[in-house]
Amino acid sequence: MARDPKHDILFQPLKIGPKVLRNRFYQVPHCIGAGSDRPGFQAAHRSLKAEGGWAGINTEYCSIHPESDDTHRLSARIWDAGDVRNLRAMTDHIHKYGALAGVELWYGSSHAPNMESRATPRGPSQYASEFETLTYCKEMDLDDIAMVQQYYVDAALRSRDAGFDIVYVYGAHSYLPLQFLSPYYNKRRDGYGGSLENRARFWVETLEKVRKAVGHDCAIATRFAVDTLYGQSGVEAERDGVKFAAMADPLVDLWDIDVGDIAEWGEDAGPSRFYLQGHQVPWTRIIKQVVKKPVLGVGRFTDPEKMTEIVTKGFADIIGAARPSISDPWLPKKIEEGRYDDIRVCIGCNVCISRWEIGGPPMICTQNATAGEEYRRGWHPEKFPKKTSDDSILVVGAGPAGSESARVLMERGYTVHLYDTAQKIGGHVNSIVTLPGLGEWGYHRDYRELQINKLVKKNRQSQVALGQKPMTAAAALAYGAEKIVIATGSAWNTDGTNCLTHDPIPGADASKADQLTPEQVLEGKKPIGKRVVILNADTYFMAPSLAEKLAVAGHDVTIVTGVHLANYMHFTLEYPNMMRRLHELHIKEIQNAFCSRIEAGRLEVYDIWGEGSKRSYRGPGVLPRDPNKTQRWLDFDSLLLVTGRHSNDALHRELKDSKAKWAENGVKDVYLIGDAEAPRLIADATFSGHRLAREIEEANAQFPKPYRREVAVWGVSHMPEGSTQVEYQT
Ligand code: ADP
Ligand code: SF4
After folding, report:
1. Ligand 2 mean position to 332 CA, how many Å?
2. I need a surface site. Which of 317, 370, 475, 706 has the fewest CB within 10 A?
């Protein structure tokens, strides 16, 4: 199918300074956990996007000096010749596919805790970071300012040596240049503080110096949060944003526009729970109106119609994307070729971001199981090794794990039967999408459903069997498949078993009329009373989502939080607005409390920290602390048990127990994947299905093959040069 001619505008080249972008698709800087220490990962992840049609591809934020060290999080670094050499692998690979490589030069000031380098960060004024609250900076004097500006220049020169085409002075997410611009950070009374001109001086001078150093060879970009979204105390688009943009425009070849700060950067990387595609356009277009240089805007753009509208209406010249490029590295190519329904649409869950927030392990993606695995496992999102046997495969369970496994096995040419009792592919995603704000997570199911249906048309031996009787071990063995994959998922505990006590809670029983599991709430068959108590021991989205759903429906909702409510949502950047939402719906929380027993219409709660703080030996059978006496009763009409999950692994156990019958039935092996193995994130279930499908010929395919590790190996020289390995003294 040819592409719609109205999308041609997205494929027009655009000049940015001395360089030309071949089209309007641009991967803005985003973290992946590679930095400059894992050059293979960095090169493979980024160049795959060049292969997939992106015209400009950036590093993540790239530190210019040890004074800006984000450890425990992982940034790129361009501190010395070793970093230049490692990042060169990325630029060389990107250039092979005709794309431009960009580097986002970064100095974090107080937002960078310098845990590795132990250097003191410098800033416009002394303050404690609102993001890293124990990190203060030293207020810069004029010598400091000149010195730090020289760091940018030196880093820019090294970037040119590393082969970068685009060099950023990064001022978004409230890093140093924006700190000078913003009165929230800048309290100076000298020529770098006070008036907007003075506050802009550091950024403008830095751009001038970097431009002078590398501007003939590289395009100069700046990333600018045009509005920090806290009114007059920060940067406001119409008050400061437009004026600064007009001031700096002659020094810039490319404007990369966004909003927000670092402490709440979910306002920029907006989760789909709260923000639709294109949510930043109202701000981007303000800047586009006042500058002459090309502008790029972000906002989880995945729809070619929306992208075309942005460019044709003049809201931005270039489509910037981080998450859509992770979810589908071949997005531009698919649009170019008119393969619209092959696009793997980002669901906006921010699980990719969660890994950076936690502290730098490789990024993962819910939609794209190959993200982060390009180098270490050699996986390509669009290319699959051909099957090496004629084995046919039965996959039981069409949730994220089973459907992904079936899809990849079919791509590899295997004959696959995907079998489920449910009427629709998708497993538990089908009910999750009914929770407030999570509708877009349905793209995960839709992508697999559509691809599998296409693949079944190509190989008529393959089949999707939905609405079936529950599969039994005997039926699975007699099915006629050589290999059986069990992907039967997990369920919420009906007896209150939880991560705190590891036991059922006396009286917890979701077969009773007034107690419900999340599945029962979502099925909607059991009546729910006015006063709802949610007993929680889960740290992700289920309890707050159910609370929101029921409060909107008019119930009075109280959450007994158990563990830190919604803690993982800090990492997905959903936490602040989730908390605002609970607050505006008057949802009550009883924090640091859990439940000891349940009776009809009431549960006994206790304070988790209610025991004595002094620990002493008191003999066998006696707790070594003063007993907890904080128990009290809480009444409910309905109690929701969000206490924990367990695998639906009975079918797999039965199959394992009947191993003796495998050979007589022609069964060579049986595997267990996804939540049926252990309940985890949708991303993990998807990965698990994908991994098995790629490695199913291995002798022990249930367990992953080793992956390539990029580690420093003793005996190889250290950086900077001259600090070569020394004799270890004890
Ligand atoms: P995962 O996240 O691991 O993919 P899900 O819970 O989303 O797991 O999906 C599991 C799927 O397996 C559901 O669609 C469910 O209907 C199906 N299923 C579970 N047990 C059986 C069974 N015995 N026979 C057929 N389908 C099953
Ligand atoms: Fe999009 Fe979620 Fe993948 Fe991130 S993890 S790219 S938000 S689908």
Report:
1. 17
2. 706
Look at residues 154, 40, 43, 137 and name the one whose alpha carbon lies nearest to residue 90.
Answer: 43
Q: What are the tens digits of pLDDT across the range 25-46?
A: 999 999 999 999 999 999 999 9
Taking a C-beta distance cutoff of 8 angstroms, is the pair 68, 27 a contact?
Answer: no
Average pLDDT of 466-480? 98
Residue range 246-257, pLDDT digits in tens: 999 999 999 999
Which atom of ligand 1 lies closest to the CA of 472? 23
Q: How far is the CA of 413 from the centre of ligand 1 (A)?
A: 24
Which residue in 120, 110, 251 sits closest to 182, CA to CA?
110
Looking at the CA of 654, name the nearest ligand: 1
Ligand 2: list residues with CB < 6 Å.
323, 326-327, 346-352, 365-367
Going by alpha carbons, the residue nearest to atom 12 of ligand 1 is: 397
Residue 422 CA: which ligand 1 atom is closest? 16
Q: Whose CA is nearest to atom 21 of ligand 1?
A: 488
> How far does the centroid of ligand 2 lie from the alpha carbon of residue 334, in Å?
18
**What CATH code is assigned to 493-646?**
3.50.50.60
List the structure tokens of 536.
């929680």
Q: Which ligand is nearest to the CA of 322?
A: 2
Comparing CA positions, the residue from 242, 252, 99, 76 lying closest to residue 167 is 252
CA atoms of 577 and 541, how far apart (whole Å): 13
**pLDDT at residue 727, as a whole number:** 65
Q: Active-site positions?
A: 175
Q: pLDDT tens digits, residue range 512-558?
A: 999 999 999 999 999 999 999 999 999 999 999 999 999 999 999 99
CATH placement of domain 392-489+648-695: 3.40.50.720
Q: Which of 433, 488, 651 to mutate to test the pocket of ligand 1 (most atoms within 8 A of CB)?
A: 488
Of the listed ligands, the closest to the CA of 272 is 2
All CATH 3.40.50.720 domain ranges in the chain, comma separated: 392-489+648-695
Q: What are phi and psi of 581, to 5 degrees?
A: -65, -45
**184: amino acid identity, one letter:** Y
Which atom of ligand 2 lies closest to the CA of 683?
5
Nearest atom (ligand 1) to Cα of 468: 25
Q: Residue 368 Cα, ligand 2 centroid: separation in angstroms?
A: 8
Ligand 2 atom closest to Cα of residue 444:
8
Distance 473 CA to ligand 1 centre (A): 15
The alpha carbon of 345 and the centre of ligand 2 are apart by a number of angstroms equal to 9
CATH 3.20.20.70 residue window(s) in the chain: 5-358
Q: 119-171: per-residue pLDDT in tens?
A: 999 999 999 999 999 999 999 999 999 999 999 999 999 999 999 999 999 99
**Percent above pLDDT 70 for the chain:** 99
Specify the domain boundaries for CATH 3.50.50.60 within the chain: 493-646
Average pLDDT over residues 75-90: 97
Q: Match 């025991």 to its residue by tokens.
A: 611
Give burial (CB, 10 Å; 0-12/13-18/19+) of 535.
buried
Beta strands in 172-306 (DSSP E): 219-225, 254-258, 295-297
Does residue 730 surpass a pLDDT of 60?
Answer: no
What whole-number distance in Å separates Cα of residue 255 and Cα of residue 717?
A: 39
Q: Give the pLDDT score at 712.
A: 83
The residues lining ligand 1, judged by C-beta closer than 6 Å to any ligand atom, are 396-402, 419-422, 427-428, 470-471, 487-490, 648, 651, 674-676, 685
Computed over every residue of the chain, the mean pLDDT equals 96
Quote the CA–CA distance of 203 and 220 in Å, as a whole number: 13
All residues at 6 or more sequence positions from 250 whose CB lies less than 8 Å from its CB, including other chains: none
Q: What's 5-358's CATH class?
A: alpha beta
